[in-house]
């Protein structure tokens, strides 16, 4: 669905969210975009299936991410699952194909590496996780920059019990997030972690005060980030992400280049002036 088609589906939410009107855009039957001031939401909308991954989610999530990343009014993106039961239960088993050769499977999976769309997003991406976050759902959350969990969240990569391994980046991203030892433990056993255990190993960084408060707390957290200088936010994400892929010397060079670019910026000057005048800065993204 292109931008003009999406605009035809725009509707104003009847109720304000967190004090702001919500502009909703339907991408397809499984994915909706919501805009609340500077925060953009990608919402998985298959609650009856615990937002299990089907072709609509695979195609719709990258569209939604590109749309929000290109929107100058949006400074932070968050992903959540609709319904009470969970963020995402993994692949929809009803969509399992018949017998395929290894070459056929690899060809199909190569063309459907939809989770990697998050890697190209310049803005911070938060996973707001409640209930079940299993298999491909956890792989989606792992690709995000920050994972914010409800107390009822449950995390697992159970693929080895199905005679498989994670195929959406789980073996690679989990090790980067929690370290190779803990990752190997979870990958081999498929053990389920509750929110507290997930935070203990660094899989999530924040837990909501209660499950019903998750969306409100993630919204407030996202707005805190959005209130920072936009160019600095984009740059710090780029530098920190670079730490995962670059040699230390290359990463340090990138950090220095970005710092030097930001130092003479209008936002940096505004921050210094606001500090001296004892007021909140007004950032314009330059």
UniProtKB/TrEMBL annotation:
InterPro entries: ClpP/crotonase-like_dom_sf, Enoyl-CoA_hyd/isom_CS, Enoyl-CoA_hydra/iso, Enoyl-CoA_hydra_C. Gene3D superfamilies: 2-enoyl-CoA Hydratase, Chain A, domain 1 (3.90.226.10), Lyase 2-enoyl-coa Hydratase, Chain A, domain 2 (1.10.12.10). One of its GO terms (molecular function) is lyase activity. Residues 1-21 are annotated as: Disordered. GO terms for biological process: fatty acid beta-oxidation. CDD domains: crotonase-like. Keywords: Lyase. The keyword Lyase applies. It holds the Pfam family ECH_1. Coiled coil: none annotated. Belongs to the enoyl-CoA hydratase/isomerase family. This is Enoyl-CoA hydratase/carnithine racemase. The lineage of its organism: Bacteria, Pseudomonadati, Pseudomonadota, Betaproteobacteria, Burkholderiales.
């Amino acid at each position: 669905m292109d931008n003009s088609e999406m605009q035809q589906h725009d509707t104003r939410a009847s109720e304000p969210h967190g004090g702001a009107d919500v502009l909703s855009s339907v991408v397809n039957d499984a994915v909706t975009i919501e805009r609340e001031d500077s925060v953009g939401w990608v919402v998985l909308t298959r609650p009856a299936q615990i937002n299990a991954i089907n072709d609509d989610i695979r195609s719709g999530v990258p569209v939604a991410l590109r749309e929000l990343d290109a929107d100058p009014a949006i400074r932070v993106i968050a992903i959540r699952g609709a319904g009470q039961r969970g963020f995402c239960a993994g692949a929809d088993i009803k969509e399992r194909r018949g017998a395929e050769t290894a070459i056929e499977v690899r060809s199909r999976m190569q063309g459907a590496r939809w989770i990697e769309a998050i890697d190209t997003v310049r803005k911070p991406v938060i996973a707001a996780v409640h209930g079940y976050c299993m298999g491909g759902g956890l792989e989606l959350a792992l690709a995000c920059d920050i994972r914010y969990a409800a107390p009822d969240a449950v995390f697992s990569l159970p693929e080895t019990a199905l005679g498989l391994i994670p195929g959406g980046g789980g073996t690679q991203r989990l090790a980067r997030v929690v370290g190779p030892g803990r990752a190997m433990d979870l990958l081999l056993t498929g053990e389920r972690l509750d929110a507290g255990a997930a935070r203990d190993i660094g899989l999530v960084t924040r837990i909501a005060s209660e499950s019903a408060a998750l969306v409100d707390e993630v919204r407030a957290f996202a707005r805190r980030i959005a209130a920072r200088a936009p160019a600095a936010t984009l740059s710090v994400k780029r530098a920190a992400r670079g730490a995962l892929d670059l040699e230390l010397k290359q990463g340090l060079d990138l950090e220095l280049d970005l710092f030097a670019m930001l130092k003479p910026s209008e936002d940096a000057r505004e921050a210094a002036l606001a500090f001296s005048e004892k007021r909140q800065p007004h950032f314009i993204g330059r």
